[in-house]
Specification:
The structure holds two protein chains of two kinds.
Chain A: E1 3-12, E2 23-29, E3 33-34, E4 37-39, E5 45-53, E6 55-63, E7 66-74, E8 80-83
Chain B: H1 21-26, E1 58-60, E2 108-109, E3 118-119, E4 131-137, E5 143-152, E6 155-158, H2 160-163, E7 164-165, E8 170-171, E9 174-179, E10 191-193, E11 196-199, H3 200-203, E12 213-216, H4 224-227, E13 231-232, H5 237-241, E14 244-249, E15 260-269, E16 273-276, E17 288-293, E18 296-306, E19 311-315, H6 318-330
Parallel strand pairs in B: 13-18
Antiparallel strand pairs in B: 1-11, 3-15, 4-5, 4-9, 5-6, 6-12, 7-8, 9-10, 11-12, 14-15, 14-17, 15-16, 16-19, 17-18, 18-19
The chains are: A mainly beta, B mainly beta.
């Protein structure tokens, strides 16, 4: 059954260090979503707020050095781990 | 087709939408009155079911009027470029509030087709200078970016979900407002506050139809007196369907510090929502959706959502107009 929830994620680099001050947002999705974007904190944490799950999304990560897209399939119970 | 992510600077920045004279003529009001029974709103996520008469009831982040003087960077005051607020006849005031469109079942893009956004290179020109970048800190200290727009010296209109975040402690802890932000340049400085407004239909019912709110800046920071402000008005269905919509904001895929603009004809209109294929991205929540006739600009919606079936704004109908007018007066 579809429901709305907020999913937490953590962004880290290839060496496992958290990436702070990156902007994370939904670039594509199977459901309507708020057009707000989350900014990662010092621990690399970000949120996808009030999204429909289960659902397939493509997230866009924007940092000072560039951007990257990453597809995710969310059930609502997981914590996302993204690498930039 | 994947969204275009190439960060190529484009030549802007004339707001004039790419429209024929014929289309401009069609923007002339064809006010029609619709009447109907008010339906009980669909309530999502187990939130409170409100009386339909209460959904647009104003709520504030602060309990009393003693809520001024938050953190701020002051601005010297200059002349006020007033823009007349249009008080148009309303339409469909009590029409049924049906859902706009069925949810998309397949993947699609917030960028619909090619990315046709244009960067605003000079944000010190009206109306771009009245569009504000928002740096939001929620009660749980999570940080977000959004967009707002000035309607009076100290009143900024934005999405309800930018001022009240249900899953992050409710009212935002603080919102920094940066009019005309242009990379590192802050031509009108910035101000921060936790003096926020929304309506019960959002804060209690979390209903998309009532996703709008306001930021009342401190007495000592009055950027709208310098930048000029947006007018706003209620337009009927026929008028909106035949209008070119303008939308400008601070998308996160561009870093959240640049203003990007696009204009396109309305896709569809429902009682409380305007839908369009204007390209948007996270960070543009709260952006103004306006129409321009001659030198008169009238905001008709507040951008809130991205979706496969079209991006959308909370429509300014009469109850929304009434609240915006009240909030405008609170920020004079």
């Amino acid at each position: 059954m579809e429901t709305r929830t907020t999913v937490k994620g953590i962004l880290h680099d290839a060496s496992g260090r958290p990436v702070s001050n990156a902007i994370v947002m939904i670039a594509q999705g199977s459901h309507s979503h708020h057009d707000i974007a989350s900014v990662t904190n010092d621990s690399g944490e970000f949120y996808l707020s009030d999204i429909v799950v289960p659902g397939d999304y493509v997230l866009l990560i924007k940092t000072d050095s560039g951007s990257k897209q990453q597809p995710v399939s969310l059930s609502g119970n997981e914590q996302i781990q993204l690498q930039y | 087709m994947a969204p275009r992510m190439i960060d190529t600077p484009q030549q802007p920045t004339v707001e004039t939408p790419p429209v024929s004279n014929d289309a401009v003529v069609k923007q002339r009001p064809a006010e029609a009155t619709a009447a109907g029974a008010t339906e009980v709103e669909e309530v999502e996520g187990g939130f409170v079911l409100l009386n339909p008469n209460d959904v647009d009831k104003e709520v504030s982040s602060l309990p009393t009027e003693a809520f001024e003087e938050d953190a701020m960077i002051t601005l010297e005051e200059a002349g006020y470029e007033g823009i007349v607020t249009e008080e148009e006849p309303l339409d469909a005031l009590f029409a049924s509030y049906s859902e706009l469109l069925p949810k998309a079942r397949e993947l699609a893009e917030v960028i619909i087709g090619p990315d046709n956004r244009v960067r605003i290179l000079n944000t010190t020109i009206y109306p771009w200078r009245a569009v504000c970048a928002l740096k939001i800190t929620a009660q749980d200290n999570s940080r977000w970016i959004g967009t707002g727009w000035l309607i009076s010296p100290r009143t900024v209109i934005t999405a309800g979900h930018c001022v009240f975040m249900h899953d992050h402690g409710g009212w935002a802890k603080s919102i920094e407002v940066i009019p005309g932000l242009n990379d590192a340049a802050r031509p009108y400085k910035s101000g921060a506050t936790n003096n926020l407004r929304s309506v019960l239909g959002w804060t209690q019912s979390k209903n998309r139809n009532y996703d709008y709110g306001a930021i009342i800046l401190p007495q000592s920071y009055r950027p709208g007196a310098t930048t000029g402000v947006f007018g706003f008005g209620v337009k009927d269905d026929a008028y909106l369907r035949n209008s070119i919509l303008n939308l400008s904001g601070y998308p996160g895929d561009k870093g959240g510090n640049q203003q990007w603009f696009m204009a396109l004809r309305t896709k569809s209109v429902s009682a409380r929502v305007i839908t369009y294929d204007i390209d948007t991205f996270g960070g543009q929540s709260g952006a103004p959706v306006w129409i321009k006739v001659g030198n008169t600009r009238t905001a008709v919606g507040i951008h809130t959502n991205g979706a496969a079936t079209g991006n959308s704004a909370t429509r300014i109908v009469q109850p929304v107009f009434n609240n915006l007018q009240a909030w405008k007066n609170q920020g004079l």
